[in-house]
Structures are given as structure tokens and as C-alpha cells.
Design goal:
The radius of gyration is 24 Å and the shape is elongated. Helix 1 packs antiparallel against helix 3, helix 1 packs across helix 12 and helix 8 runs antiparallel to helix 9. It is of the alpha+beta class. The strands form 3 sheets. Strands 1, 2, 3, 4, 5, 6, 14, 15 and 16 form a 9-stranded mixed sheet that branches. Strands 7, 9, 11, 12 and 13 form a 5-stranded antiparallel sheet that branches. Strands 8-10 form a two-stranded antiparallel ribbon. It is built from 12 helices and 16 strands. The longest helix has 22 residues. It binds zinc ion (ZN).
Length: 429
């Protein structure tokens, strides 16, 4: 569909994204870390843009910036659209920001067309989606879904400030964080760049996300014996690194097999290897590896864990080293995008004559938390060579506008089709 035919203003949307990108650490583009003065500057700019668009801007107790457009029937509740405006260090111009700007453009396009919705529409800039200096990611969406605990608020950044203090500094209220939990949001939609190459490689214009992976991190430690690399004959060695290296190869092979056998998404990576004493003339005494496992289907994780346990034990025995019990360092469940919302997004893409396809998200997103409190779904737009979390990150103006147009159309459909008097949200997670 040509730009002129889209039901929103692609240039206006693009101008916002570029303007926000200008608010960056000048010697380290594009950096706008959550809780930093630049982040607050970006938010002040966004809040003004919200107000310019006729939205009422506020910051909730969990530090989310929310712009609200009133609905004709307040009792029907809220349709929310959003993402995040913080970045990783030396990140890109689109990750997160594209989704906030798209939400704002949806609100403006509705007003331009004099479209009155029954539901209120809220544009949300979630606080600190990226891992923050406090050691926590998705701070705002955890808050909005009732998952931000007091223990989390006690986490500290290296300088000693607690997340509780930081939250107050950005306009949130840590004493009333429970107030941020929402029961009135009836549907949530997030536009995001794909951060991968699936859409580009299949020449798709929009991706409709089926689910967001759960992530489990598992530590395995092998204990052998340090020995002189010159004087210890091969059969007498107890080399911990050899057992770890063979385990890494097995992880790769088992992950490939599981991914091929199952319809679900499955990937596993060893990205951490610590060797002791890590000296060229010493047989390694100890080796620790960390496996990052991501899938939309927890049963695959369980099958994988059994296989890893078995194979690592086998490799340890062959290298005459001891393998410590597997330690689960962290574990988060996958989130399933709502089938009803996905179908709505699919129909909207079809109506706009856009080539759409289903895909899973291998990265975490605020939607994963929102899915706990209301039907939620995501639209991915292609980004060049799949690059993200780097200044080279790029998405085309038209691609972002097409994704936003799908969300706009879906919001209008949902305004009519969402259950009228459901007191409790229906969640299919
Ligand atoms: Zn993001």
C-alpha cells in the first residue's frame, strides 16, 4: 500500500521517532538509559507530544508515562497501545520508541478522522523495559501487571540508590505501587521492530507474534584437577574444560534437534565460559558454563534439561571430572499472545493488503507482562539485517507506518468487538 493510502501520517510518525533519537548521549548514540536525566528529558518531550495530540498525560505509581484519549463509554474500559522509550547503552533509534510513537500516531489519526471510540485509548511508555542499572528489566510493565515486588524495589544500582528511590525520582510512587496494577485494560497491543531476520528473509511486511519466549538460565560446573600442561601424560589428566567443551557441542546439537522436531520455537546458547586457572600451561581444573534456553513451549525445556543432564554427565565421566548438579539461575515462563487479538491483527493486515506472517518472539517484551492481566498481542515490523541494540539499527519509515496502520485498524475493530460487560478480563495464557 502506498504511503498516501495509509490511514495515518507516516511522516509525522517518523519525525517523532527521529526527534526522540536526538535526545541521546552525544558521544554514545543512541543512549537514553532509564532513570537518567536524558531519559527524563525524552519523557518530558513525549508528554508534550501527548498533550499536543489532545491526550491527558500522567505518570502512574510504577513510573509509566500514560497518555489517555477519553472514550464515549468509560465503563467499557481501556484499549492500551505502547512500548518503551529507554534504550540499551549504544542502542538504536527504533527499539521500543517505534512502538510508543506508533501508539501516539494511532491516537492522532483517530482524532484527525473524528473517530470517537467507546473505549478510552491509552498510549503507554513503560518504564525501564531494558535491563536497568538496578538489575531489573520491564519495571513498568511488571508494575502494571502487579508483578513488581517490594523485594525488587529494594534492588540497588552500583552507586547505592534503590529502585524505590529511583522510581520516586521519575515521578512514580513506590509506596503505592499496587495502584499501578490495572483491571480496566481490556486489550493491549505493542508494535516493535523484529530484532531478527525472519520477516526480511520471507519478504513479509508485518509479523503477528504468536508468543514471547520464556527464558531459563542454567549453570553447569565441572571440577577436574589442575596439573602441569607439560609433564602430565594425556591419560592421567582430569581436564574440566574438555568436559565443558563437549557439553557445549552437545547443547548445540540437542537444540538443533528439538527445534527441528517441534512446531514450537526453541533455541539454546552457551554464552558464558569461565575457566580456572585459565593459564596456557595448566590443565584446566574447573570450568563453569551458563546455558540460555528460550522457548514458547516449557515442555521442550524439560526434555532439553534431561538431555543436558545426561550428556554433561557422560562427557564428565569420559574426561574423569566431576559434574556438579545443574543449577537453575533464573526461569521465566513464556507468554502466549491472545488468539482473538492475533486474528484481529491478521484481518487488519489483510484489509490493508499487507503481507503478514506468524512468528515467535525470541526476545522479551513488555507484552509478556501485560499478557498476565489482559488479552495482549504484538506486531513486528522488519528491521534491516535483523540488527538491533546497536546504532546501526534501522527500520524504514514506510515499514513502521504499515505496522502502525495495522494497530490503528485493530484498535477500531476491538472497540466494537471486545466483550461489552465482562467484569473479569479473559486471558488465554
Ligand atoms: Zn524493546
Amino acid at each position: 500500500m502506498a504511503a498516501a493510502d495509509l490511514p495515518l501520517d507516516a511522516d509525522r510518525l517518523w519525525t517523532d521517532i527521529m526527534a526522540l533519537a536526538e535526545i541521546t548521549e552525544s558521544d554514545r548514540p543512541y543512549t537514553r538509559r532509564s532513570f537518567s536525566p536524558l531519559f527524563l528529558e525524552g519523557r518530558a518531550w513525549l508528554a508534550r507530544r501527548f498533550e499536543d495530540a489532545g491526550l491527558t498525560a500522567r505518570i502512574d505509581a510504577a513510573g509509566n508515562l500514560i497518555g489517555q484519549r477519553k472514550g464515549n463509554k468509560p465503563e467499557r474500559g481501556v484499549i492500551a497501545v505502547g512500548s518503551h522509550s529507554d534504550t540499551v547503552p549504544s542502542g538504536g533509534r527504533f527499539d521500543g520508541i517505534a512502538g510508543v510513537a506508533a501508539g501516539l500516531e494511532v491516537a492522532r489519526a483517530l482524532s484527525d478522522a473524528n473517530e470517537q471510540l467507546d473505549h478510552a485509548l491509552e498510549v503507554v511508555d513503560f518504564l525501564a523495559e531494558e535491563p536497568s542499572e538496578y538489575g531489573l528489566s520491564c519495571v513498568g510493565s511488571r508494575g502494571m501487571s502487579g508483578m513488581l515486588t517490594s523485594q525488587m524495589l529494594d534492588m540497588r544500582e552500583p552507586g547505592g540508590e534503590t529502585l524505590r528511590e529511583a522510581l520516586r525520582r521519575v515521578g512514580g510512587n513506590p509506596d503505592r505501587v499496587a495502584d499501578a496494577r490495572r483491571a480496566d485494560v481490556k486489550a493491549f497491543l505493542e508494535l516493535h521492530i523484529e530484532q531478527g531476520v525472519v520477516l526480511e528473509s520471507q519478504s513479509l511486511q508485518v509479523g503477528i507474534v504468536t508468543g514471547i519466549v520464556g527464558i531459563r538460565r542454567v549453570e553447569i560446573t565441572f571440577d577436574g584437577a589442575a596439573a602441569h600442561a607439560g609433564t602430565t601424560p594425556m591419560p592421567l589428566r582430569r581436564d574440566a574444560l574438555v568436559a565443558a567443551a563437549n557439553t557445549i557441542v552437545s547443547v548445540r546439537q540437542m537444540a538443533e534437534r528439538l527445534a527441528a522436531e517441534s512446531a514450537g520455537y526453541f533455541v539454546a546458547t552457551v554464552g558464558v565460559v569461565n575457566v580456572e586457572p585459565n593459564a596456557s600451561n595448566v590443565v584446566p581444573a574447573r570450568c563453569r558454563i551458563v546455558i540460555d534456553i528460550r522457548t514458547t513451549e516449557p515442555r521442550l525445556t524439560e526434555r532439553f534439561m534431561e538431555a543436558v543432564s545426561r550428556e554433561s554427565e557422560r562427557h564428565a565421566a569420559a574426561a574423569h571430572v566431576r559434574r556438579a548438579p545443574l543449577v537453575i539461575l533464573s526461569d521465566g515462563p513464556p507468554a502466549i499472545c491472545d488468539p482473538g487479538l492475533r486474528a484481529t491483527l491478521g484481518r487488519s493486515a489483510e484489509k490493508l493488503k499487507l503481507r503478514a506472517g506468524d512468528l515467535a518472539s525470541g526476545a522479551g517484551h513488555d507484552t509478556a507482562f501485560m499478557a498476565r492481566i489482559c488479552p495482549s498481542a504484538m506486531v513486528f515490523v522488519p528491521c534491516r539485517n535483523g540488527k538491533s541494540h546497536t546504532p546501526e539499527e534501522w527500520a524504514d519509515k514506510h515499514a513502521i507506518a504499515e505496522g502502525a496502520a495495522v494497530i490503528l485498524d485493530a484498535v477500531k475493530s476491538l472497540d466494537q468487538s471486545l466483550p461489552r460487560n465482562a467484569r473479569e478480563n479473559r486471558v488465554t495464557a
